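Hypothesis: this fold can be encoded by more than one sequence.
Test: take the structure tokens below, design a sequence, compare later.
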């Protein structure tokens, strides 16, 4: 078995207007870069990688991100996905842990795992949001479209580079309850399962029972930190007050790992507003910013 860790501080998946609206007090640049800064912090404080590790190169901030085919920074999304997929293939990865960055970073590794494990792979999307938008819809950030692309719906170029997709009945949206800039109608239309937030024992049991119902032995799990109720810990870009407790999220992941073969794990969307402001302050200081 080959486990590969991807450190992937992508920020381009977030639509500028959307992330700015979620971060009052930050400038547009600070808000968008908060995803990438958070990804770097998360990688720094995570346990050291044991074995194979890659850092996905992320282009510098642009004040004028280009929207192509209804997707913000589509060409940068394609370039980063291509790098990640090439490295996963080169390493023969059958397990992937990804530290992001925005939610977009799960598309390539989960598609790779779907190609490796086929119909034996189930995906748990542990997130306050369903991320089932389509290009050109209500929000043009790719981070709101990841689940759509994982089931084969979305931008033709992005779908064309993904090595495999997953049937909708093998993806569960766990903890999903927030619909800002999201299209909830696609959940029922595509036959996705939603597991609503609940108390710890009930939630964990529902997640494990769902995986068992798929007949799959392997699981890839996306852990968006905004699924944790922001009244307890405000981890994510979006402060969602009605999520699950941090202990519930950790217990659910542990239960899945114990009952099944956890072959993929993404931790995404850690956002530090203070670090984003500090970056701007440091960039304006003498000596630090002398060229």
């Amino acid at each position: 078995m080959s486990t590969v860790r991807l450190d992937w501080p992508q920020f381009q998946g977030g639509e500028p207007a959307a992330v700015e609206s979620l971060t009052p007090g930050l400038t547009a640049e600070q808000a968008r870069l908060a995803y990438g800064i958070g990804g770097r912090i998360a990688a720094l404080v995570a346990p050291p990688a044991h074995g194979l590790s890659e850092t996905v190169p992320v282009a510098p901030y642009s004040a004028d991100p280009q929207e192509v085919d209804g997707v913000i920074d589509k060409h940068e999304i394609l370039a980063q996905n291509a790098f990640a997929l090439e490295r996963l293939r080169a390493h023969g990865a059958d397990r992937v842990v990804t530290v992001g960055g925005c939610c977009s970073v799960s598309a390539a590794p989960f598609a790779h795992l779907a190609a490796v494990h086929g119909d034996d792979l189930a995906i748990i999307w542990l997130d306050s949001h369903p991320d089932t938008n389509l290009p050109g819809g209500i929000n043009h950030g790719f981070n709101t479209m990841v689940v759509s692309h994982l089931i084969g719906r979305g931008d033709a170029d992005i779908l064309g580079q993904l090595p495999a997709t997953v049937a909708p009945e093998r993806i569960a949206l766990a903890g999903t309850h927030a619909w800002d800039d999201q299209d909830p109608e696609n959940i029922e239309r595509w036959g996705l399962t939603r597991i609503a937030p609940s108390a710890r024992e009930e939630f964990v049991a529902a997640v494990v029972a769902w995986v068992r119902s798929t007949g799959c032995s392997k699981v890839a799990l996306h852990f968006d930190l905004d699924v944790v109720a922001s009244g307890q810990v405000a981890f994510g870009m979006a402060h969602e007050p009605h999520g699950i407790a941090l202990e519930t999220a950790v217990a659910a992941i542990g239960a899945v790992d114990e009952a099944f073969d956890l072959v993929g794990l993404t931790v995404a969307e850690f956002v530090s507003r203070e670090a984003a402001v500090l970056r701007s302050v440091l960039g304006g200081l003498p000596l630090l910013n002398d060229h």
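The first strand starts at residue 3 and ends at 8. Strands lie at 3-8, 52-55, 67-68, 71-72, 95-100, 121-126, 171-174, 193-195, 218-224, 261-268.
Hypothesis status: open.
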